[in-house]
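TASK: fixed-backbone design
INPUT:
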């Protein structure tokens, strides 16, 4: 496991609250399990189970019990992290406070969201719109003269298009969106909540093939052409094998991803190939698993082929994106949910949107009434600039006094009036967090989950990731234990280059064929290699195994010069010496060995935790949960 696979990444990616079994929604006197003296209710366990187990294959019994084992391991690590006091650092407290502030606002505002607005946004999520736009920039705080100038400019462009000018050509020539120089204003497909709201409103209110009137956003004035509307595709849960590519190694990355694809086609295991070859450190040890994506949430070069896959387990041919090369596997498809299923999420998203900003002021007034906000005589004295002691109480909330020191602790900027207003906001928010934590199980579980995820991340970093990356002696010792699993049985000392241009490849081949010293002589070899590198081609010298590259597999693998023509590329290979079977050096397999060393350290750590902490499972209650889930499934 690597650090980005910790629970914290899941917590940040998903704000949709999973369904729970109604029978167990209330807090039971008897816990389902106890881990390191921490009692976990049925409701809390089911919250985590339903949220993180979307795969419905297999029996309910096996799914619940398998997840329970993982959940216990997670709780053991969290217990150890708290015993290490990782949650007492200033960094931890600051991040946790920020998250609480982000989390509480949607709960404050969701009650203000009307059902008609929810229905309108739900209807929008049922569609995906392909559109293009032209932008004339103007700042939000621009003068009336500058605003009018921008408006007149966009209006003239619209008139040109109305009179027959091509939208894409006008976008290319006049749009002030920098990307228009590449895409002629095309935005691709997107759906609700993915664009700024005035722009989204204009798009959804413009018929296909027509152009909107000028619309103002914080970026400036736009005109929008709606190209097409299609039914929303839903979401896909995907995994990938990834090879990073840039101008220096694009060709090599393509060769390597092609070789991995061929291995898959020959029946080799996806998870093993991912762990061994993928360069996405966040996912490689989890079978390349990513997250749920919908239209507009990932590059179409990756997402469109993923939606085109039919069955879980199907995978694409190698795909090129701006990041590099991918092979994408479908794990699961999820259709667009119904209105009732998604109403809660829509309310939260609407509450976070600018449509609801005007409600925030009225919310402060309602919270003041709710928690009994009261000023003291020193409140206005502080606002007016009088010097008062830090311990002086300025206001009360929920009968708790808040002194000047509270304001100073917040390190707020601005005038005294601005500081005290912000401090009141923070204090009201803190009280609402406490109230929601005590009265709203969804809020409590999500906040606890985030806190646990942060603790887990810090603990894993100290006990596993940093040790694996920094303990070179331990890593080498571990490699020595497993090095016989990394045997190069067809190894050779060789020089090779891969060239796209056939004329250059032929010239290099003739050069070496006429004088092998261009490879065997170190000075000449370095001159030749530098000349080729200047042409931005792959070139290397050293000990390699025949399995390292597809070109090696397609060569005769004999001493001397070989020329391999594969997929439009030309590989020149000069084998100086064939070697007997040897262990692959750590430098060649470091990525995979580090990954295995991390897993080994984690397993040892877990074994120690299971010895250190007591785990109690209420088997009778667990079985009743399984039975209830089975009945619901039927």
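OUTPUT:
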């Amino acid at each position: 496991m690597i650090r980005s696979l910790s629970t914290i990444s899941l917590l940040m990616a998903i704000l949709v609250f999973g369904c729970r079994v109604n029978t167990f929604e209330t807090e039971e006197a008897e816990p389902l399990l106890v881990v390191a003296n921490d009692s976990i209710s049925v409701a809390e366990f089911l919250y985590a189970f339903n949220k993180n187990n979307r795969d419905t294959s297999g029996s309910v019994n096996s799914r619940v019990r398998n997840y329970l084992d993982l959940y216990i391991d997670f709780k053991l690590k969290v217990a150890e992290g708290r015993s290490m006091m990782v949650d007492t650092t200033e960094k931890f407290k600051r991040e946790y406070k920020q998250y609480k502030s982000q989390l509480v606002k949607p709960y404050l505002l969701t009650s203000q969201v009307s059902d008609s607005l929810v229905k309108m946004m739900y209807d929008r999520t049922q569609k995906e719109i392909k559109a293009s736009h032209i932008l004339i920039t103007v700042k939000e705080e621009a003068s009336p003269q500058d605003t009018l100038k921008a408006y007149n400019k966009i209006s003239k462009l619209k008139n040109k298009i109305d009179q027959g000018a091509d939208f894409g050509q006008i976008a290319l020539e006049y749009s002030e969106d920098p990307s228009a120089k590449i895409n002629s204003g095309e935005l691709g497909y997107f759906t609700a909540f993915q664009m700024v709201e005035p722009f989204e409103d204009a798009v959804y209110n413009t018929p296909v093939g027509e152009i909107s009137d000028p619309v103002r956003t914080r970026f400036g004035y736009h005109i929008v052409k709606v190209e097409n509307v299609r039914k929303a595709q839903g979401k896909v849960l995907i995994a990938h094998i990834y090879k990073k590519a840039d101008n220096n190694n694009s060709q090599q990355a393509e060769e390597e991803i092609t070789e991995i694809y061929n291995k898959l086609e020959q029946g080799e295991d996806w998870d093993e190939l991912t762990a061994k070859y993928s360069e996405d450190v966040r996912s490689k040890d989890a079978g390349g698993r990513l997250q749920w994506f919908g239209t507009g949430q990932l590059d179409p070069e990756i997402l469109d082929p993923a939606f085109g896959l039919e069955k879980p387990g199907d995978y694409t041919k190698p795909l090129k994106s701006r990041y590099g090369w991918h092979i994408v596997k479908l794990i699961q498809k999820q259709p667009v949910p119904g209105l009732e299923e998604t109403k809660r999420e829509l309310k939260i998203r609407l509450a976070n949107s600018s449509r609801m900003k005007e409600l925030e002021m009225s919310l402060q007034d309602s919270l003041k009434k709710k928690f009994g906000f009261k000023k003291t005589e020193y409140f206005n004295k502080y606002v007016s600039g009088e010097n008062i002691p830090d311990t002086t109480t300025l206001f009360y909330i929920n009968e708790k006094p808040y002194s000047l020191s509270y304001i100073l602790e917040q390190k707020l900027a601005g005038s005294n009036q601005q500081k005290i207003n912000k401090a009141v906001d923070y204090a009201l928010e803190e009280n609402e967090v406490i109230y929601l934590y005590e009265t709203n199980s969804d809020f409590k579980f999500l906040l606890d989950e985030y806190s646990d995820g942060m603790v887990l991340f810090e603990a894993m970093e100290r006990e596993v990731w940093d040790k694996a990356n920094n303990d070179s002696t331990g890593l080498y010792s571990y490699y020595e234990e497993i090095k016989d699993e990394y045997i190069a049985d067809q190894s050779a000392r060789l020089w090779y280059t891969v060239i796209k241009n056939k004329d250059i490849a032929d010239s290099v081949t003739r050069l070496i064929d006429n004088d092998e010293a261009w490879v065997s002589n170190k000075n000449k070899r370095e001159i030749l290699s530098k000349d080729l590198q200047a042409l931005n081609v792959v070139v290397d010298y050293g000990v390699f195994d025949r399995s390292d590259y597809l070109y090696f597999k397609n060569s005769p693998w004999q001493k001397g010069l070989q020329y391999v023509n594969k997929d439009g590329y030309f590989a020149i290979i000069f084998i100086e010496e064939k070697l007997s079977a040897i262990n692959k050096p750590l430098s060649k397999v470091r990525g995979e060995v580090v990954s295995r060393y991390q897993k080994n350290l984690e397993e040892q750590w877990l074994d120690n935790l299971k010895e250190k902490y007591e785990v109690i499972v209420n088997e009778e209650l667990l079985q009743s949960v399984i039975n209830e889930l089975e009945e619901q499934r039927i």
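COMMENT: The mean pLDDT is 88.
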